[in-house]
Specification:
Blueprint: E1 28-33, H1 46-58, E2 61-66, E3 69-70, H2 80-96, E4 102-104, E5 108-110, H3 115-121, E6 133-137, H4 147-155, E7 159-163, H5 169-172, H6 175-183, E8 187-191, H7 192-196, H8 201-212, E9 216-220, H9 233-243, H10 246-261, H11 269-277
Parallel strand pairs: 1-2, 2-4, 3-5, 5-6, 6-7, 7-8, 8-9
The structure holds fe (ii) ion.
């Protein structure tokens, strides 16, 4: 059975829906994480997967969307049913061990001309299976204008969330295109580690620049295993609080990710900044 995105999913995990202040007891929602075992370049065993899940819990994450790579080099390995079965199995293992974490289904989808057709067929997954947001991974080596895809997705009622633009050199060379896509309603997702420098100075600088422009609507771990370090959500949250604004940190690490899992429209950081200025 597919673990469907459920309304008010976060309320069951100490995440306060619609809250705007930052409270210690609130837990993060991570909408980009390779936590399923034996499907992609994430954990290669159940034990590795559980170690990653423990790290998520230690990082104060209560709800995570499993986003194995779909299309691209993992096309033959990660079909939708395999992901959904894996989510169900991992939730069973987590509850058996008393780990306070819930996993929802999803995918990180490599740019591909078949995306709309495959979404319609249910062969690739939206985040939390809500048919509202698709997490899109663009090629790093070549720039492709995704405006036609954004139009086609919008016609199907689906909004793209671009994964880690701060780590995509070809995208950073085209800020005007990025700005145009934002006007079409695309959302940008930063990797938490980039905010704190775990992907190097260039990614950290790009992350800060995108945050300063108000272009980032969501922060997620993109964690693959425990070898590469922590998921860094706590550190990214604290960094954004200190360098920018506590309300923005809450929006990017708790409120908007929770909205993704509930299939709700995100609050753009740009409109949040405009409200602050009034
Ligand atoms: Fe990823």
């Amino acid at each position: 059975m597919i673990v469907q995105g459920r309304s008010n999913a976060g309320l069951e995990h100490g995440v306060a829906a619609g809250a705007t202040s930052t409270h210690e007891h609130e837990r993060f929602v991570d909408v980009h994480c390779h936590c399923l075992p034996n499907v992609d370049d994430g954990p290669q065993s159940l034990e590795e997967s559980l170690a990653l899940c423990r790290a998520l819990v230690e990082d104060n994450i209560g709800l995570v969307v499993a986003t194995p790579h779909q299309l691209g080099r993992f096309e033959t390995r990660t079909d939708a049913q395999r992901i959904c079965d894996g989510v169900q199995r991992l939730n069973r293992e987590l509850s058996r061990r008393g780990l306070n974490l819930t996993v929802l289904g999803g995918a990180e989808v490599r740019l591909d001309e078949r995306i709309c057709t495959l979404l319609a067929n249910g062969e690739i997954l939206t985040l939390a299976n809500q048919r509202r947001h698709v997490l899109l991974e663009l090629p790093h080596d070549v720039f492709i204008d995704v405006e036609p895809l954004l139009h086609a997705l919008a016609a199907a009622g689906i909004t793209a969330i671009l994964a880690h633009p701060e780590r995509n050199a070809s995208l950073l060379r085209h800020p005007h295109a990025l700005s145009r896509w934002l006007a079409y309603g695309v959302h940008l997702q930063l990797t938490a580690g980039s905010v704190v420098g775990s992907f190097g100075g260039q990614a950290k600088e790009a992350a800060r620049e995108l945050l300063a422009r108000g272009w980032v609507d969501i922060v997620a771990s993109d964690a693959h295993d425990t070898r590469e370090g922590r998921p860094y959500m706590k550190e990214a949250f604290a960094g954004i609080r200190e360098e920018f604004d506590p309300e923005l940190a809450h929006l990017l690490c708790i409120e908007n990710p929770l909205r993704v899992t509930n299939g709700q429209r995100l609050i753009p950081a740009r409109s949040h900044a405009a409200q602050e200025a009034r």
